[in-house]
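Figure 2 data, in text form.
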Amino acid sequence: MKRNDLKLLVGEANLDKIFLKLREILSDEPALFNELMMISANYKTLRKSVTTSTADNKEVDRALNKVRTSLLNLIDHLSESQLSDRAKPEISNGNDELIGTKGTKNSEGLDAQSFFYTLDDNVSASFPNLIDGASSVKILARTGVNLLSQYHRNFLELGNSGCDIRLLIISPESDATKYVYGDNSEMFYGNAKKTDYYVKKLQDKLGTAFQVRSIKHAPTMGIMIIEKSQKENCFIVCQFYFSHSLIGRDRPLFRVNYGDKWYRPFFNEFNELWKSGDKWSLKSVDNEK
């Protein structure tokens, strides 16, 4: 495997793959392998810290950059024989890139572990990190209550910086509200009222910079489109919705970067739904139950 290919993996959002490849390469090199294990331990500690309410985004970024620097230094110490003697993992040409981790293929197709991740797996997947420097943020969700309640301040900062924010959620008048959270229709109305509260606060402060529309059917997944000034830095994060098995932070996500052949279909899906959506009716939530 080429040294530069390894370094490219260090720049990916999810570092699990580079740790796996380096463990394969260094399995017969005790000194370097131990160094790798120390870096891996620091990364695991960092991932755990992100799940706590006390985690500071700037500190997380600095710690993550330190992990990446350590990995790059380790790669620079690899000899050519160490790079060539091991099996070469398949590296895509970028056209099939997902979530910042290029998938590997087995005899039966694409290995899902190589591109799905959860919020707890990926220290770069937190909302503040994703929206950093965004010029446009478009979100398709069921109610968006978690994002609005946890990151109200971040939405305010985004809107005040000139970012165009669009939120597309389920209409409280839709029959889909009865089933969107399994059989728990009360959960939808409880979440919708909280959403309504934050929508009012944000629109009062941001005006047209924060727009909300509603759709009559339940989305099959959440979609978040992050656009930045440089096209190559644009990407889409998608999260699957489950009714029973995975209903929290462990729901699988994947990322599609600009230039990937699947970027445009997801981008167009949101825009078409937005065009056909209705204005979010704040009163309809107040009048429910």
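Caption note: Residues 215 and 277 are 5 Å apart (CA to CA).
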